[in-house]
Amino acid sequence: MAQRGSYAKGIAKREEILTTALDVIAREGYRGASVKELAEAVGLSQAGLLHYFDSKDELFTAILRKRDELDLETYRTESDVDPLRIFLRVMRHNADVPGLVELYTRLNAEASDHDHPAHQFFAERRATMTELFGGLVADGKRTGRYPADLDTASFALVLTAAADGLQTLWLQDPTIDMASELERLLVSLGALSPERSTTA
């Protein structure tokens, strides 16, 4: 029983670390979120913090997983809203948390190394996005909303790549309106109607 209780406490502490880290990065930015600062925020030493994660890279990857979980919890209740509209809302929200966008962008680049802890995360995330948007397009084809020759897999890939690329550009130039640019792309692809493109 003691071992089970200890395990539960370890899971709870890990969740506390991730939740706190999200707040710190959103508030202080990626550069203000060293292992030392994150450890202090949860009352641990650096060694104590890394006891719950294999490395700094694994910690930051877990932070991104936690962010995606929270975004899903926040927006999945809106079942009556077009999933693409929800995606645009997430993009608008991202503009309010530049530290998390920088973390995502940096790890996305580093994940090109297949041995990096974030590589599997981004592979899984891409597969999830492909399934989500691919299913959306497939449904749209059946109802006649989208052209029958619209390539489902290509649509999902390009939309994900466009969102990731816009985030990189936005970090360089914060005057870029990521959601609006993505919205224009969706309208041009026929995924959103022009008359609905002014609001999200």
The mean pLDDT is: 86
Helix content: over 70%
CATH topology of the largest domain, by name, is: Tetracycline Repressor, domain 2
Envelope shape:
elongated
Which oligomerization state do the chains in this entry correspond to? single chain
Q: Helical segment tally?
A: 9
The first-to-last residue Cα distance is 50 Å
The CATH architecture name of the largest domain reads Orthogonal Bundle
Strand content: under 5%
Runs in which pLDDT lies below 50 for 5 or more consecutive residues are 195-200
Rg over alpha carbons: 19 Å
Structure classification: mainly alpha
Broad CATH class of the largest domain: Mainly Alpha
Give a count of the beta strands, DSSP E runs of length 2 or more: 0
The CATH superfamily name of the largest domain is: Tetracycline Repressor, domain 2
The ordered H/E elements are: HHHHHHHHH
**Count of individual domains:** 2
Which helices and strands, and how do they pair?
Elements: H1 2-28, H2 35-41, H3 46-50, H4 56-75, H5 83-94, H6 98-110, H7 117-143, H8 152-172, H9 178-188
Helix pairs in contact: 1-4, 1-6, 4-6, 5-9, 6-8, 7-8, 8-9
Pfam family, one: TetR_N
DNA-binding region: 34-53
Protein name: TetR/AcrR family transcriptional regulator
Task: Name the features.
single chain, 200 residues, mainly alpha, Arc Repressor Mutant, subunit A, Tetracycline Repressor, domain 2, disordered C terminus
What report would you give on this structure?
There is one protein chain. With 200 residues, the protein is mainly α. The protein folds into 2 domains: 1-52, Arc Repressor Mutant, subunit A, CATH 1.10.10; 55-196, Tetracycline Repressor, domain 2 (Orthogonal Bundle), CATH 1.10.357.10. The chain has 9 helices and no strands. The longest helix is centred in the N-terminal third of the chain and has 27 residues, at 2-28. It is elongated, with a radius of gyration of 19 Å. 23% of the residues are buried. Residues 11-71 form the HTH tetR-type domain.
